[in-house]
Amino acid sequence: MKPLRFLAYRTSLPMKSLNKAQMSRSSTASVNSKHGFWLAALGAVFLSVFLTSPVMAQSSEKDDRKTKQTVAMSQPVYEALLEIQELVEAEDHANAQIKIAELQDKKKLSPYEAAQIWNLSGYNYYLQEKYADAIRSYESVMRQPELPEALQQSTLKTMAQLHFTVEDYEKALETVERLMAVIAEPAADVYMLQGQALFQMQRYEQAIGPISTAIDMFKEQGRVPRENWLLLLRVCYWELKDFPNMLIVLEELIEAYPKDSYILTLAGVHSELGDTKKQLALTEALYEKGYIDGKTHAVNLANLYLLHGVPYKAAKVLEKEIAAGAVKPEVRNLRLLSQAWYSAREDEKAIPPLLLAAEASDDGELYIRLAQSYINLEKWSEASEAAKKGISMGGIKRMDTANIMYGMALFNQKKLEQARRIFQTAGKDSRSKRASEQWIRYVDSEIRRRDTLEQKLPEMQARDIDDILKANTDALE
């Protein structure tokens, strides 16, 4: 007898794409930031009932209850189902549904026959992506009395997947719970269905239990947990900001499925936990081995280098990636490059990127930073010009400090009166009053010294000189 192949079809229902936490939110963030992934199909559904005779019946007793396994089908119904199956396989769905309706009108159908007719109807609707109709057909399967447990379980699993497909997660969860009620010992994939439904409903704390159970069941069987299961658990912990547990899951992911993206996310979690040294070590290793590109991660790596007192490396990374075109020469990146060179005490190298950043920005603070670098190099004219421009542009956090720098640059160009006025302006801020007064005293002393040196001595007549010499001679005698 030819088997009913529709009873052995496999479905793989696609799930909604989720984009959860890329840590380098980054991440932060990961964690930011954002990395996406596809939830894997909820599992294959196999309905494998092969009939070797038109009529089969069986009953069994389990867990102090009787479950009557009724598998009874007449020859005419069997042959009609075979005919309809051929129409379905030929994608003649309209005629297949007409034939299904005609078959359902027959009288004295057994519960099992009715169930299999509805089962084929559901499958026909599913292939047409008429998911609501498919769900109604499978619900009709479940309304038949004395169904075999295998058929109940496979039907409920298919229904749960269909509810996921139409994003009705409440119904999906309800269906999974019905499924678990008819299974004495639910398998790991059933727990995952429950966990995924809770996850999609953003009930992350509740989702962790069934997802962890599914993962633990695999471990107990000596099997490696599926990658997408670990990823789902990771996202749950991320949403709950439970970084210690997220760290544990990531380490397991890296051990079982080593990927650079997981190592980078691990670095982000270390950042969230305040362990930026480990974050730096992981990010640096990935960068040096070429596993992460400079376009995305060079600036982050440079900031980490600066944070941990390695400004020279920060500058070299940024300089390399800007030259390669991976990092854009934007104001913030140029400013960071300049800061790195300045912190590394490389003032000559700090000036070009800072000058570019200052010219491209309306931020007076950049010109004050530029003035400081010029002062360090004793380039007083350039320092005074930069300070003057920065002060005129405004937006400076410490105007008093900027004026002190401006005054210093003027003083070293011997522009003493101008420098004195600038120091007086700086002294109006109480934070720089003492420094201003000290500079003013020093400037005043320089003014006096200059004026003394420039003062002309009176010309002496020859007679006066003779009188002085004679007086000296008399004193010696």
Could you outline the blueprint of secondary structure elements for this entry?
Layout: E1 10-11, E2 17-18, E3 37-38, E4 45-46, E5 55-62, E6 65-72, H1 75-89, H2 93-104, H3 111-127, H4 131-142, H5 149-165, H6 169-181, H7 188-200, H8 204-220, H9 227-239, H10 243-256, H11 260-272, H12 276-288, H13 294-307, H14 311-323, H15 331-343, H16 347-360, H17 364-376, H18 380-393, H19 399-411, H20 416-426, H21 433-454, H22 462-476
Antiparallel strand pairs: 1-4, 2-3, 5-6
Helix pairs in contact: 1-2, 1-3, 2-3, 3-4, 4-5, 5-6, 6-7, 7-8, 8-9, 9-10, 10-11, 11-12, 12-13, 13-14, 13-15, 14-15, 15-16, 16-17, 17-18, 17-19, 18-19, 19-20, 20-21
Notes on the structure:
- The chain has 477 residues and is mainly alpha-helical.
- It has a domain at 1-184: Serine Threonine Protein Phosphatase 5, Tetratricopeptide repeat (Alpha Horseshoe), CATH 1.25.40.
- 65% of the residues lie in helices and 5% in strands.
- It has 22 helices and 6 strands.
- It has helices at residues 75-89, 93-104, 111-127, 131-142, 149-165, 169-181, 188-200, 204-220, 227-239, 243-256, 260-272, 276-288, 294-307, 311-323, 331-343, 347-360, 364-376, 380-393, 399-411, 416-426, 433-454, 462-476, and strands spanning 10-11, 17-18, 37-38, 45-46, 55-62, 65-72.
- The strands form 3 sheets. It has a two-stranded antiparallel sheet with strand order 1-4.
- A hairpin with a 2-residue loop joins β5 and β6.
- α1 (75-89) runs antiparallel to α2, α5 packs antiparallel against α6 (169-181) and α6 runs antiparallel to α7 (188-200).
- Mean pLDDT is 81; it is low at 1-70.
